[in-house]
Design brief:
Elements (H helix, E strand, L loop, with lengths): L2 H26 L3 H27 L2 H31 L25
Family: Belongs to the CPA3 antiporters (TC 2.A.63) subunit G family.
Protein name: Monovalent cation/H(+) antiporter subunit G
InterPro entries: PhaG_MnhG_YufB (IPR005133)
């Protein structure tokens, strides 16, 4: 077993543990903001660590060239989806208003429904 295999094994283990904690957080946390935190931060970091482990273990530049856009897309879509879920939770009034430090939408006009 080479040193790169050991590095890849450790990275996969840490990444899998981070993804596991994200899944447990989604089940255990009660409100939307804490669930969003659990769904985005540890899951994305765990996924990126697993991608790095795959690149290290396979020793192939085409694999790395494939994994870099995959990781970048994950970095772009996770915060975007969390933002949209949080915004919808605010609009549905499923957020605890007292837990918000700053409510930037309090003075904003309600969104108009422009569907025909």
């Amino acid at each position: 077993m080479s040193i790169t295999d050991v590095i890849a094994l450790v990275l996969v283990l840490i990444g899998a543990l981070l993804c596991l904690t994200a899944a447990i957080g989604l089940l255990r946390f009660r409100d939307v903001p804490t669930r969003l935190h659990a769904a985005t931060k540890p899951q994305v970091l765990g996924f990126i660590l697993i991608c790095i482990a795959v690149g290290v273990s396979l020793h192939s530049w085409p694999v790395v060239a494939f994994l870099v856009p995959v990781a970048l897309i994950q970095l772009a879509t996770a915060p975007l989806s969390a933002h949209m879920v949080g915004r919808q939770a605010y609009r549905n009034k499923t957020l605890d208003g007292e837990s918000l430090f700053v409510d930037e939408f309090a003075d904003a006009p309600a969104p108009s429904d422009t569907r025909d």
